[in-house]
Structure formats: C-alpha cells, structure tokens
Specification:
By secondary structure, the chain is mainly α. The protein has helices at about 25-35, 40-45, 50-55, 65-75, 80-95, 110-125. The protein is built from six helices and no strands.
Length: about 130
C-alpha cells in the first residue's frame, strides 16, 4: 500500500499535498523562541552567519555535517533535520516532475522477498 502522501496518479505528480515545514522555518522558530540571533547561533555552531541565514531563507540546504551540528546544539536529531530538507526538496521537485514517460512496474512482491532475504542474512550475522 502506498503511503498517503504519494499520489502518482495525479496529473501533476504531486508527492506531497502541501508544502512541508522547512528546516529553515523550524530553525527560525527555535531561534526566535530562545531569543538567539543568527550571528550568535552561527558562532555557537562555528559556521558562517550566511550559512544559517541561507537555511532560514531557503537558499542553502541543510548538509549532513550541519545537521550533526544542529543536533548537538538543539537535541533535535540530525536525521530529522535532513528529513525536513529532503521533504522540502521532494516537494519542490514534484512541482515540475513529469513521469508520463515512465511505465510503472510492480515491484511489491520482489521487494517483500528482498526484505525477507535481507533480514534472514542479518539474522545469520552476515
């Protein structure tokens, strides 16, 4: 079963129904709530203020290294920071994606079998 946010049958192939909250919007909220300026936060992370400002403005992505620094500073996991970035990236890409030239394949059974084999190998210690 497809996750509810996937809507591949839609004409515009919108993967997400509405624009997700960006990492920058969330970071801006956190900084405002704690009355921390961008320069202060950037200095705390040992990054340039332009990088933090770019994330807040949506002109710079959250990178793996920055996500780790954000996790250390905010206790909001690096995986969550990166997931927020990826959701936004997918949302933006879906606005112009045209999958009409790609014929869907049925991988459901193969995926199930592959996962079962992977789990079995992990249980054997491979």
């Amino acid at each position: 079963m497809k996750p509810e946010y996937l809507n591949l049958n839609n004409q515009n192939h919108s993967f997400l129904a509405e624009k997700p909250v960006s990492a920058g919007e969330y970071l801006e909220f956190l900084l405002a709530e704690h009355k921390i300026t961008i320069p202060e936060f950037a200095a705390h992370l040992n990054v340039k203020g332009e990088k933090i400002n770019g994330i807040i403005e949506g002109t710079s992505p959250v990178t793996r290294n920055l996500a780790l620094k954000l996790e250390a500073a905010t206790k909001f996991s690096a995986m969550n920071w990166l997931a927020m970035q990826q959701r936004l990236d997918l949302f933006e890409a879906s606005k112009t994606f045209d999958g009409s030239s790609v014929t869907p394949l049925d991988f459901e059974e193969a995926t199930r079998q592959g996962l079962a084999k992977c789990r079995a190998a992990l249980n054997r210690g491979h």
